[in-house]
Amino acid sequence: MNLSAILLSLRLAAIVSVLLLVISLPVAYWLAFTKWRGKFLFESIVALPLVLPPTVIGFYALIAMGPRGPLGKIWQALFGRSLGFTFTGLVLASLVYSFPFAVQPLAASFESLDRRLLDASSILGAGRLRTFTRVIAPLSWPGLITAAVLSFAHTLGEFGVVLMVGGNLPGVTRTASIDIYDRVQALDYAGAHQMALLLLVIAFVVLSVVYAVNRRVWSPFAVR
Length: 224
What we know:
Elements (H helix, E strand, L loop, with lengths): L2 H31 L5 H13 L2 H12 L4 H10 L7 H11 L1 H13 L3 H9 L4 H12 L1 H16 L3 H7 L9 H10 L3 H25 L11
């Protein structure tokens, strides 16, 4: 069993899930409470990774991170090295790929709140930040946990995006899913089975956490 690939996948999933929570909170808050009629356009952009093939996302991410891409040029100017085929590149691409799995559960959780509680907080003189920290966040903790766990599990199982952006560099970009693919290509079915079974167990555990916290797990295809 390739312990290095497993640890790399867990590290990638943990970093991405934490960053996504920070990034997704203001986005989900805006989606839940804005009255802008055109917000469906932004919701469509957020949901794109749910329907796009991972290779499409990986291809455009690779172009953006390349030496002629906008992200690649900025990274090269700041750090003097390429962004493509690096762990940092995997993190950035994974943020895009797992973005809807963090935003949509949070937005759904915010939208389900009793607006009378928010109005009462406002009447009592609490500002938006205080209302969020004292009312919205405590009442939305199942959505917060669901977003963190789903984004973690989704990132953990990445293949297409990882392969396109990171390639297959041992210890750098070779994740567990890539390792499974390599073992199958080498006809090492026993090794592939061990890695696949481990990912299966991890996925089952993290999804069990979601069901334990929220009896109705969020689905990207749920009717809102």
